[in-house]
Write a structure and sequence with these properties.
By secondary structure, the chain is an alpha/beta fold. The chain has a single domain, classed as P-loop containing nucleotide triphosphate hydrolases (Rossmann fold), CATH 3.40.50.300. 34% of the residues lie in helices and 26% in strands. It is built from 10 helices and 12 strands. The protein has a 6-stranded mixed beta sheet with strand order 6-7-8-3-9-10, sandwiched between helices. It has a 4-stranded antiparallel beta sheet with strand order 2-1-4-5, covered by helices on one side. Helix 6 links the parallel strand 7 and strand 8. The longest helix has 18 residues. The radius of gyration is 22 Å and the shape is globular. The chain starts with a strand and ends with a helix. The relative contact order is 0.15. The structure holds adenosine-5'-triphosphate and magnesium ion. The site of adenosine-5'-triphosphate has 13 residues, from strand 2 and helix 1.
Length: 276
């Protein structure tokens, strides 16, 4: 269990976490949603030990971040940050291998290379193994960084908007793989998403952040309501259940007024018949 207790984070004068407490169970996909600038990335960086909280406690398996050396703390993590630019002269395979930085020596172990190639194969990107990463598309970079995070075989996996550059196919490849691996390996997985419908499909537990607080948490079916969407984003929405019982969020354009229904093809057909 990853536990956050009475966490306070302030950057300059901005309060980004105020007495924030929550716990994250292993083997579950936890998804954070919330408005731009509300502190989602800051929270991930704080859990990783990149940002020093003003107060509060972060612990994993009864060891607190304060008491553990930062390098030992980070060894437990796979972390995919929000920034996906890869402006370095390395091949895709080399970047994936960097996920195992602790194990890399002067000579590369064949089993590590095999592991990296398998990671690429599982997400359908083996064909890119020898390509330079600075010549990849944005979405391809994002998938490669995902493979690198998996390569760490982490206990805690954090992903900051991991599908922001991905097409529909790769969004589901990444999230489905993540879900399966989280359950098989009992990882604590924490991911930031903006797409509420993807969050509804993949989250076992949803944490809704606003103004330094977790304003709602729980299973998407229990907490995703039009009132919550309005409160958090100031957007009107309809929330229905799809045929699988998963919430479906349809946002409504501001100032939208329904138009008269347009003529359907069969109406046009009958009109033509009348004219004849
Ligand atoms: N190092 C920093 N020093 C001061 N302020 C910062 C720093 N990093 C981020 N901020 C500010 O903290 C706020 C939260 O930033 P953060 O990146 O955590 O937001 P976010 O919820 O991830 O937003 P987005 O959805 O746009 O990614 C923003 O107003 C940002 O400008
Ligand atoms: Mg962010």
């Amino acid at each position: 269990m990853l536990q956050v207790n009475k966490l306070n984070v302030t950057l300059d004068t901005l309060i980004l976490a105020k007495d924030m407490s929550f716990s994250l169970e292993p083997g579950k996909v936890h998804v954070i949603i919330g408005p731009n600038g509300t502190g989602k990335s800051t929270l991930l960086k704080t859990l990783f030990g990149d940002i020093q909280p003003t107060s509060g406690d972060i612990s994993f398996r009864d060891t607190s971040l304060k008491r553990k050396q930062i390098s030992r703390w980070r060894e437990q993590f796979g972390y995919m940050p929000q920034d996906i630019r890869l402006d370095i002269e390395l091949s895709v395979l080399e970047v994936v291998l960097l996920g195992q930085l602790n194990a890399l020596g002067l000579r590369l172990d064949n089993s590590l290379i095999k592991q990296a190639l398998t990671a690429l194969e599982k997400i359908g990107l083996l064909h890119l193994a020898n390509r330079p990463v600075n010549k990849l598309s944005g979405g391809q970079c994002q998938m490669i960084l995902f493979a690198q995070a998996l390569m760490r075989n982490p206990k805690i996996l954090m992903l900051d908007e991991p599908v922001s550059a991905l097409d529909l196919h790769f969004q589901h490849v990444l999230l489905d793989h993540l879900d399966t691996q989280t359950k098989q390996q009992s990882w604590v997985t924490l991911m930031v998403l903006h797409d509420l419908n993807l969050a509804a499909q993949y989250a076992d537990n949803l944490l809704v952040l606003k103004n330094g607080h977790v304003v709602a948490s729980g299973h998407p079916s229990d907490i995703l309501t039009p009132a919550l969407v309005k409160e958090v984003y100031d957007v009107n929405a309809e929330v229905t259940k799809d045929s699988y019982g998963i919430p479906f969020i349809r946002t409504i354009r501001p100032g939208f007024t329904p138009q008269k229904p347009t003529l359907q093809p069969h109406n046009l057909q009958s009109k033509r018949t009348i004219c004849l």
